[in-house]
Amino acid sequence: MLERALQDLPAEQRAVFCLRVFEELSYREIADVLAISIGTVMSRLSRAREKLREALAPYLAAARRAGSEP
Amino acid sequence: MSAHVEDRLSPYLDGELSAGERDRVESHLRGCPSCARHLEELRAVDAAARALPLEAPAGYFGSFSGRLRERLPQRRARRWPAWALAAAAGLALAVLVPLSARRVVSPVPEAVKTDALRSSTPTTLVAASPAFAEPPRVRAKTAAEPGAAPPAGVATPVPMMASREQLKSGLYAQKRSGPSAQEPSSQAAANQAAPPAAPAAGPAPASVSGAAERLEGAEEKNKEGPLRKIQRDEASRGVRTDAQLMRADEDVGYQSLLVRQAGSVDEARRLADAWKTFAETHPASPRADEARVRAIEARGLAWRLSHDPADLDRVRQSARAYLASSRAPQRERVRALLETLPASEP
Lengths: 70, 346
Fold this sequence. Notes:
In chain A, 80% of the residues lie in helices and 0% in strands.
């Protein structure tokens, strides 16, 4: 599910997400590698995370329900 | 209550906000359960992604990992083997979210917490998810994380800048020499596949973002001669011109699958799925056929490792579907594979 959502991201968003989350680059490093501005890194990453969050929404909701049970 | 801060949560999570902005976000989070929950969900997304049991997802991932490896500190070069130990994403989510959801009531104080959560002790997490029990990745960054941008002890900006051209030229070299030199025809498809970029919304100041798009567009196209100006102009108007990036994405996706090894049933099944996805995602690629065949072979491997009749059914079905298709240049290879399988019941 998440893997699929990750692959479905636009390439430019996936690149930023992967560099941040998997390679753990800072925004400055990502900006340098991709030759884009930090502002663009920020906005692409935000969009990528939002899409992944939407893709995982059912799981997040279920986990939240499970977590709120005593 | 102050305005919601959803659009600042991602950089907040990464510790990339200025002190002033961070204070504003934290102040808002203390009084806004909705934004606090949003933040926890984003955090869960990251955690789940990190726990994906992949060596490298198809796409940029492998590309950047490979090309950056020489320039990255060793801690990053070791990232991939650690991934092999990660549990299924679902597990990490199921474990992480209930815990983090409870913390909504006491909003998260600082971004560093993500790292604390991952790399230090919370025993339930560590015990329940191998993703968190991986041999401690060297996390030099943890110490540097509270500060925003360029963390100490990682690649310095200068080499980064110096080698950016190398990175780009590597990309071009790969594209030019790769077997899928399907130049103009794939451009339309790639453009179609690439959703139009949203106008630089969000936090990026328009001027900065616009400049970046121009720079990016120019660098992507710097081998294209006369097209360059047009594309730069398009980029400056917000029109995406990343056909080449999409093609590079296909290249590295393919190559990252080629080097992927399947040593267990699950890995073989995932590899089969990944090849299938590649073939479906790039139907016009000259590599699509090879991907289809490799998907069948990986499924065959899954069956040999599992002896699960469901795997046997799937490998038979996919092999027969391939043989029945009008375009099956590797018919013999698939037929040979099919013959190694046990005779099917009448």
